[in-house]
Amino acid sequence: MSRSERLLLWSAAVAALALRVLAWLHYRFDSDEQQHLHVAWGWTAGQVQYRDLFDNHTPLFHMLTAPLLALLGERADILLWMRLPMVPLFAFVLWGTFTIARQLYDARVAAWAVVLLALFPPFFLKSLEYRPDNLWNALWIAALVLLLRGRRVFWVGFILGCALAVSVKTMLLLITLGVTGMLWWLFGIGRSHEAFSRPGPIHARRPTAIVLLLSGFAIVPAILVIYFVSAGAWDSLIYCNVTFNSGLALTRKYLWIGRAIFPFTFAAVVWAAWRARRNEHPWRWALAVMVGVFTVTLAGFWPLISPRDFLPMMSIAAIFAAAALTDARRPLLAIGATLVLFCGALYYYADRFENNADWHVTMMEQALRLTHPGERLLDYKGETIYRRRPFYYALEIVTRSQMAAGIIPDTIERDVIRTRTYAAQADGPMWPPAGRAFLLANFVNLGRLRAAGQWLQPDGSFTIAVPGPYVVLDERGLAQGTLDGAPNGIRQLQAGRHQFTGARGACVVWAPAFERGHSPFHLRDRDF
Asked: What is the model's pTM?
């Protein structure tokens, strides 16, 4: 590298580090992060994933991070701390990208591939978040590094088995490896290159290697199968990971289009692979084919596609992009323009790096004060982390789509009453219609959360949906008057109609909420 290029490289690397620290503190928490953390908390609370609480992801990530969550304890800023384990995974992916790029090209391309990947907005933001995809991606990169070195096929299988225990999307990676290996063998890739004459992506020319690969692959999934069967959660695991997830396809009207064009897109990839089969470096050919096979398979069959699904291909794309940019007529200009584009996109998608993490911290402070351990709290997907939910399903898009189609029933009202749940997350568009109407009618706003209760009618009447302790309040506190003919105070009220005689504009609220400092007349929208 020239002096100018080294200066640009190190400046971009420092900028990537500074922006990552800023984003760690300020970037908003995705609802997926909260859902995953709630599942990890379930393990610390003695619950069994799938059997006792819902999740539609394979369990290894939650199991591995649960001990750290238990060590940190209940705290409002827990998601900031649980983003820390993502840092070594991020660093490992960068190291793996450098290692692969250096083997395919040289140290210059490898260095730029790392910088480009670190600043690529989808990778930057998703690798920051607490989510299984980061462990999944790191395991994939580890498998690629071993594959390119052409040895330890047993450990390649073991790593891929761990990846399957982290994400069902590993099946797409297995299909990608299998198809790439088959094309490698059919097209005779590498036979004329002595340095690359060792077996291809799945070692297709060595049956014993296939056995070793499958043996390593089976270890972790087999252990998990044995555990969940012994815990009586096997049927729940199959439902959550297979039946539930596949149910989304029934709600996608246009999914058939992707499947109909898949034969043509796949044929285009095979044709391109055939045309490029005499590439001077067989492993560049293999990785390019992997990107093509993975992309067309994902687009053809996956019912819900998001940027995080492409994480395993981003490192490869960064390597090819770095090779192209460094080979441009004016490489510094090409690289500099790309970096400016990436930083501008980051500024936009990270909401100008404003502090949007405090919203969830505020809600968590309210949740920890409003409810005590052992009390239930209804939220969308597990946003309040440390409390059991009365409704089994997480209200993510897969659930909401199936509820709208009538596949999954809306039992929020019944479950809230059955479990005596007195606290809920604030109103929003993710609630299903019937459940939302019930909550609006029978819960009152406290800020980021709600408590069971109701605003009194002009004649002082109100109804109770969830039996329990209640009190009538006004803006000064305990309202003066009589409740069902007795002086107002904390009363055990049964479901049904009740009457308050006294102050107007009053509200009946779950009594523990008032005792713990909450009132619908003084919303808790700021930090305590």
From this structure: 0.94
Closest of 276, 338, 255 to residue 9, by C-alpha = 338
- pLDDT (tens digit, 9 = 90+) per residue, 273-296? 999 888 768 999 999 999 999 999
- Report the C-alpha gap between 10 and 156 in whole angstroms: 33
The average pLDDT across 246-253 equals: 89
CB atoms within 10 A of CB 497: 9
Q: What pLDDT, on a 0 to 100 scale, did the predictor assign at position 1?
A: 86
Other Cβ atoms within 10 Å of 234 Cβ, number: 17
pLDDT of amino acid 503: 83
- The pLDDT score that the predictor gives to residue 196 is 43
CA 227, CA 21: separation in Å to the nearest integer? Answer: 39
Q: What is the largest CA-CA distance in the chain?
A: 96
Q: What is the rounded CA–CA span in Å between residue 425 and residue 445?
A: 9
Helix or strand holding residue 481 (H, E): strand 481-483
* 279-299 burial code (b ≥16 CB/10 A, e <16): beebbbbbbbbbbbbbbbbbe
- Closest C-alpha among 42, 44, 67 to residue 55: 42
Classify the phi-psi angles of 50: left when phi > 0, otherwise alpha if psi is within -120 to 50, otherwise beta.
left
